[in-house]
Design brief:
Elements: E1 3-5, E2 11-14, H1 22-30, H2 41-52, E3 65-72, H3 80-88, E4 91-98, H4 103-106, H5 114-118, E5 127-130, H6 140-148, E6 163-170, H7 177-191, E7 202-208, E8 212-216, H8 224-232, H9 243-253, E9 263-270, H10 279-287, E10 290-297, H11 302-308, H12 313-316, E11 317-320, H13 329-342
Parallel strand pairs: 3-4, 4-5, 6-7, 6-9, 9-10, 10-11
Antiparallel strand pairs: 1-2, 7-8
Helix pairs in contact: 2-3, 7-8, 9-10
């Protein structure tokens, strides 16, 4: 446990590893002098996001990050952007608001609905309003229970809510209309396993033949149902097979716009050998931090699938002889994505 006090500017009173027991924490709290100043909550959240939950300050990778923000009245700066970035970093923000803005404060109110813009879910779980400071003691147990309910801490990073996943879909003539719909169902079946929103996992899609087409980018759809509907609306293109150019296009049109704190995952689906080189484009996306999965059907070339896939190939490259068998790979791809996520060190 640590404390950041804010007014005009935030500062750390003590961090997560300063005190090892509750007695020392309590004594330290009692010695904190009041800052005074304005109520710059947005600046405080930015400070917490950048400086507080660091390994050097005692952050434990396996423990949820929780920020309980006490606000007297209303913030005097903008909260939305700072809180969005904090949520995307995996910080579960709880707001305890005390009283309301008095007449003198109202002229400084910038975002009257700041709580809904700040919390992980607008379902009341992350926010508590207290009519006066005298009632603050009464919400302690409620707040403790919520913070300890780790299953409901929706902003904690998991393998299902912290990625930008770009599907690169072969729309060449050899696929055919019926099989193309099967491929889209495969894409939908993978997508629906993730928690999708503008701050959770985001989905994008590119279709390619000789040419490439951005079907939708990461910032286009912010709900799971919108993503699934968008996948259904993708029209079969038909043409040749330039997989290398498609990888370059996905890198430029999708992954270059990925958020810094998101894992970049590419799932490429093809049924044939490419007319162009795939090795250099694949090497480039690998070097740019994209985790690449290749899924080949029928006439797909095994050597190209392995070149496209991130190492080790056996965990990132898949082949099936018929389109109707694609569904078999959905659980394995999801499992591999999660296994890889859970094996990586993170804040």
């Amino acid at each position: 446990m640590g404390i950041v006090q804010y007014g005009d500017d935030p500062s750390t009173e003590f961090n997560l590893k300063t005190h090892a027991n509750s007695r020392d924490v309590k004594n330290a709290i009692e010695k904190i002098p009041q800052k005074g100043g304005r109520s710059n909550v947005g600046k405080a959240l930015s400070f917490v996001n950048k400086n507080f939950f660091l390994d050097t300050n005692g952050n434990r990778g396996g423990a949820p990050n929780v920020a309980i923000v006490l606000v007297d009245g209303w913030p005097t700066d903008k909260v939305e952007e700072a809180s969005r970035l904090a949520r995307e970093s995996g910080i579960n923000i709880f707001f305890v608001t005390i009283e309301g803005a008095d007449e003198n404060e109202k002229q400084n109110v910038i975002e009257p609905n700041f709580v809904d813009k700040a919390v992980c879910r607008t379902n009341g779980f992350y926010s508590i309003n207290v009519p006066s400071w005298f009632n603050l003691r009464k919400v302690v147990q409620t707040l403790v229970k919520r913070v300890c309910d780790t299953a409901r801490l929706a902003c904690s990073k998991t393998c299902l809510n912290s990625a930008d996943i770009g599907f690169v879909i072969d729309g060449s003539s050899s696929v055919g209309t019926g099989n193309f719909r099967t491929v889209l169902q495969f894409v939908a079946n993978i997508s629906k396993e993730f928690e999708i929103s503008d701050t959770d996992t985001r989905i994008g899609a590119v279709q390619y033949t000789y040419e490439q087409r951005l079907e939708f980018g990461f910032d286009k759809h912010s709900t799971k149902q919108d993503v699934l509907n968008a996948i259904k609306r993708i029209n079969y293109w038909s043409g040749g097979t330039s997989t290398g150019a498609a990888i370059n296009y996905a890198s430029e049109q999708l992954f270059s716009k990925s958020k810094p704190n998101k894992r970049k995952i590419m799932v490429l689906i093809t049924d044939g050998r490419s007319y162009d080189d795939v090795r250099v484009p694949a090497m480039t996306v690998h070097q740019n931090g994209v985790i690449a999965y290749s899924v080949g059907i029928a006439w797909a070339a095994q050597d190209e699938l392995e070149a496209i896939a991130t190492d080790p190939d056996k965990e990132h490259s898949f082949f099936v002889d018929e389109f109707d068998h694609l569904y078999r790979f959905v659980p394995r791809i999801i499992q591999n994505i999660c296994t890889e996520f859970n094996s990586q060190p993170r804040n």
